[in-house]
């Protein structure tokens, strides 16, 4: 079974689940979800730590940027 479609589906689901009412809560939830998703994808490519760092940073920035 190919893992890429499953990983993409999980990443999209987690992205849509990240919600909050303030920039701080969105940044925190986005960072946590991004870190988890990045670690999962990174573990498939050989480096979960780097994936978690990149995913957490991108998730936090994205969460903070989308706050109303």
Descriptors:
68 residues, mainly alpha, 3 helices, flat
Describe the structure.
The protein is mainly alpha-helical and 68 residues long. The chain is 81% helix and 0% strand. It contains 3 helices and no strands. Helix 1 (4-17) runs antiparallel to helix 2. The longest helix has 23 residues, at 23-45. It is flat, with a radius of gyration of 12 Å. The model has no long low-confidence stretch (mean pLDDT 76).
Helices and strands, in order, run as HHH
Work out the radius of gyration. Answer: 12 Å
Distance, first to last CA: 40 Å
- What do the pLDDT scores average to? 76
Q: What is the number of E strands?
A: 0
The total count of helices amounts to 3
- Structural class by secondary-structure content: mainly alpha
Task: Write a brief structural summary.
Helix content is 81%, strand content 0%. The chain is mostly helical.
Task: Please specify the SSE layout and strand pairing.
Blueprint: H1 4-17, H2 23-45, H3 48-65
